[in-house]
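For reference, the entry.
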Amino acid sequence: MTSVKQILLYGDLPKNKENIIYLSNHQSTVDWIIADTLAIRQNALGHVRYVLKDGLKWLPLYGCYFSKHGGIYVKRSAKFCEKEMRDKLQSHVNAGTPMFLVIFPEGTRYNPELTKVISASQTFAAKEGLAVLKHVLTPRVKATHVAFDSMKNYLDAIYDITVAYEGTVDDKGQRKEAPSMTDFLCKECPKVHIHIDRIDKTDVPEEQAHMRKWLHERFEIKDKLLIEFYDSLDPERRNRFPGKSVNSKLSLKKTLPSLLILSGLTASMLMTDAGRKLYVKTWIYGTLIGCLWVSIKA
């Protein structure tokens, strides 16, 4: 069980379900969980679908699951196939599939220890005449533009999400790597701060060139929020986002049933010899079949 003490929400998370694109900064595999924690507060957990880098389709069991559940695997830069993404999104629209589409426009995780990646991102921004960003990478527009263009008549809004993990600054005031999934689930993570900005779809430019500028401006806003969070000289403004925060807690009725079902099924399998064999075979053969399936379909 995670040992996070608090999840603090800033801005406005609508209570009602909507068809949305979720755009967030990316620094850890925990960011996937953050998307889920927001979706469950709208009773929309089953609507979450991810745009993922292509290599993740080979994850044991999960690679196949994400694809079957509406996830979209994309390749970077010149290998990006726009038609495949459009076709999959259009199939969801035609089927009336509820959509909580998670995109991390940076394309890879921001890690302050990977100085070459950060430097290359900043150099690219400067070369393109874009603002140089400090605490996020220069966003890529292709997947966001294809997603919005394919579903603009189906969507209600875009959620612009900025996430900061407290306790990720060292004694010298330098930002450290965000917690890994293992750290998040098994160790202490004092607070997670989540800033939410709901943007109506009518306020999003449709042309790719204009959207590229708009998306970079949104990441400039994220960067300013994170500069305040990590670097502010005023201790009252550090380790928080501007404005009022709400300590968001989930009721047991939203979390306990799934915990009991999962724990019960797992325990029942591991308590018997036949169950343990079935558990191992599920992972082995499920992974092999899943890899074969995604190699053909994904």
The beta strands are 3-11, 20-24, 48-53, 72-74, 100-103, 157-165, 188-200, 245-247.
